[in-house]
Amino acid sequence: MNAARHLRPLDEIKAEYVASALAKNGGNVSLAAKALGIGRSTFYRRFADVASPPTIDAKLPVRTLDEIDAEYAALALEQSNENVSLAARMMGIGRTTFYRRYKHLIGRER
């Protein structure tokens, strides 16, 4: 179970996808935000520091932030052997928040 504690931070993963969406859309924030499933204002508010990263990997597939978030939660559940409290701790959120956001993943066959 030691490996379960070594998930990369979700913010770091999201930042990579945001940077990739920007690169694929030629730096156009409106198009990148649309590809990520969020509004332009939300993009600026949440990812202002990613708007001009030093290196951008345009090879990542463009996925919505909700998809990335759910995949990360599923990985945390898998690595914690379906222990919701541990999965929540690994993600840096509370157990109640995990249940509220990811109840559709709990007990599901992967």
Overall description:
The protein has 110 residues and is an all-alpha fold. It is 56% helix and 0% strand. It is built from 6 helices and no strands. The chain has helices at 10-24, 29-36, 40-47, 65-79, 84-91, 95-102. Helix 1 packs across helix 2 (29-36), helix 2 packs across helix 3 (40-47) and helix 4 (65-79) packs across helix 5 (84-91). It is elongated.
Characterize this entry briefly:
The protein is mainly alpha-helical and 110 residues long. Helix content is 56%, strand content 0%.
The overall strand count is 0
| Separation of the first and last Cα atoms | 19 Å
Classify the beta-strand content into a percent band: under 5%
Sequence stretches where pLDDT stays below 50 over 5 or more residues: none
The class by helix and strand makeup works out as mainly alpha
The main β sheet shows up as: none
- Shape descriptor reads elongated
Spell the H/E element sequence.
Answer: HHHHHH
User: Helicity range of the residues?
Assistant: 55-70%
| Whole-number mean pLDDT | 81
What is the helix tally?
A: 6
Radius of gyration: 15 Å
